[in-house]
Amino acid sequence: FLFSSFVGNFQGFGVVAVTFIAMMGAGVAEASGLMSALIRMLVQVAPRRLIAFIIIFVGVLSSVASDAGYLILIPLGAAAFVSLKRHPLAGMAAAFAGVSAIFGVNALITPIDSMLTEITNEAIALAGGEPITIVANYFFSVGASLAMAIVATVVTERVVEPRLGEYRADDAAVAPLDAIEDDDDGLSDAERRGLRFTTYASIAFLVFISLLTFLPNAPLRHPETGSIVGNTPFMDSLLFIITLYFLIAGIAFGRGAGTITSSDEVIAAVTKTFSGLAGLVFMLLMISQFIAYFNYTNMPTVAAVSMADLLERSNVGALPLLVGMIVVIMLLNIIIPGVVPKWAIFAPVFIPIFMRLGVAPQTVLAAYRVGDSPLNVMTPLMVYLPFVVTVAQRYQKDAGLGTVVALMLPYSVAIALAWILFFIVWFLLGIPLGPGYPVGA
Predict the structure, then answer these.
(1) Which end of the chain is more exposed for a tag (fewer CB within 10 A), N or C?
(2) What are phi and psi of 355, to 5 degrees?
(3) Which residues contact 187 (CB under 8 A, 6 or more apart)?
(4) pTM of the model
């Protein structure tokens, strides 16, 4: 089995195809400059009194793209605070918290959602359950995005800024030339034209999808019941619809801004995106073998039954066990910071066990999202941490790794505690996690 199934194991691992499809549209949108322009526009037109919240929330939204939040929003957050005579390190920290510490959720459906969902379904198959869809955690993600952005805003304005004190420009390693002027929206004429093209394309795309969805007997409705949500063509097509939208929006922006002038450049953007996934694909190859061998030994069933029986006899209850899982994931995140690799490793263990206890898989996935992100800003294995240190040194010559970690500690603690409490309240109130997906245990 070890030798004869190697290729088949990888071929049957649905996460790989989902990863490529999900990242294709986002990659074109990012390569065209659309993500960069949107982030700068949203931050720089924000009301001054809401700037911290806007920076953090845009950081949460930026997980739609791979690198844009880190490479654009973190320096932009510092520059925005400087322009408002506030401490730039507070703006930098706020952006970093939004991009990284609240990474597991989003008000939009993102490529990460599709990857986590597919991994969850692979684990559900081990326990013989029904697969979930990409929107299984959508309500929870939207609520958590807003709630944690508010928590991070309070930390920025009540804890971090008072600790930093008044900013003195003579502490900077370089002159803050990137400060944002009040009359400057930070966009070139070409980028404004690109955004207009994107708006037109978005309206046309929305009308097109609406015609396919909302008209009587529309092809994306259920052929018998006429439903849109549930086991319907619309829900099955959601990942492709989102990918197609980002692809069209990115091309429209590129044509308007002049960053994409031919089909060759679109292909080059997709190729660059796929080449950046090489490390992830290799890791998924290894994980696909692990899951296949794990399933072949029948260990998931044995482990799930024995662990579930043990936990049932302990009479602890589903909610304390879920909170315990959240804490375990938080601690493991220090050494395994990737959201997809970590879930690929632990979903085959946690999903069958909790399903044996009567906990719905979408609830386990929601708990995983809570545990995954808060300590991202603290782990030395965070690949963008050196970049954040570099941004800090532009405004404070003696800033180092310790400076950034100390700055981000209040965010990690506050977001971790608030998010666990948020999950507990959501669970106890029995609010659905997504359309058609109850929280129930």
Answers:
(1) N
(2) -65, -35
(3) 37, 40, 41, 195
(4) 0.79
